[in-house]
Write a structure and sequence with these properties.
Elements: E1 7-12, H1 22-29, E2 33-38, E3 50-53, H2 67-81, E4 86-89, H3 91-99, E5 103-116, E6 118-119, E7 127-137, E8 143-148, E9 151-157, E10 160-163, H4 171-180, H5 189-197, H6 199-219
Parallel strand pairs: 1-2, 1-3, 3-4, 4-10
Antiparallel strand pairs: 5-7, 6-8, 8-9, 9-10
Helix pairs in contact: 1-6, 2-3, 4-5
Length: 220
């Protein structure tokens, strides 16, 4: 029987891009003990079975990476070098890319979409939400699982996975995020409506994806 991630660290801000949505529901089914760690001037990470790094309005793109973000890259680099399971979502995926020697570049504008991915991984098939300003080129040492024309959006190396897709999104979470970020309604309202129409299928798809990722992490 596959063991569960008993102790999980979630690194995030306290007031933006911090909601776990279906990811939190999956952790509940695993009976995981979740410890929240807030981004601050000095981040320390206790030992755990899994580290999840959430999104952020900050950047690790070339030319935009400030010292606190560089510290986060170094923490993640040390974590994955120790062969510990890691899941990065959006900004967390960008941090992982830099930690493993990949590249992150600032785009000309914000990319938002809800379209099927180009992938040969069945659990990644179908429509997923993307919302980011920085584009990942995954490290050459990683396996890319999904690409968009402008960026790599799902990749892994060993027990570390980076997902540019927002598997934590629900219609309610996106609405709160759009209002919190002071984004014009027309730029995100359509995404709320799309997620709302598929609300019943979102959680099962996320559960299936996380089951697969965790099983691969444990198997490595």
């Amino acid at each position: 029987m596959l063991r569960s991630p008993g102790n999980v660290i979630v690194l995030s801000h306290d007031d933006v891009a911090h909601e776990l949505g279906p990811v939190g529901a999956w952790l509940d089914t695993q009976k995981a003990t979740v410890q929240r760690v807030s981004r601050g001037s000095a981040i320390t990470l206790p030992d755990a079975d899994l580290l999840i790094v959430m999104g952020s309005p900050l950047s690790v793109a070339n030319g935009y990476c400030a010292p606190p973000q560089q510290q986060e890259i170094e923490l993640v680099s040390s974590w994955v070098a120790a062969n510990r399971p890691y899941l990065g979502i959006c900004f967390g995926a960008q941090v992982l890319a830099k930690a493993l020697g990949g590249q992150v570049e600032r785009m000309n504008g914000t990319h938002r979409s809800y379209e099927p991915l180009k992938t040969d991984v069945s659990e990644l098939a179908g429509r997923w939400a993307l919302w980011h300003e920085d584009a990942i080129t995954a490290p050459a040492t990683s396996q890319v699982h999904a690409r968009e024309p402008h960026a790599d959006v799902a990749f892994s190396r060993g027990r570390a996975w980076g997902l540019q897709i927002h598997i934590e999104f629900t219609a309610e979470i996106v609405e709160r995020l759009g209002q919190r970020m002071n984004v014009t309604d027309d730029d995100w309202r359509w995404l709320v409506e799309s997620l709302g129409q598929e609300s019943e299928s979102i959680e099962p798809r996320v559960f299936s994806l996380l089951d697969m990722i965790w099983s691969r992490m444990v198997a490595v």
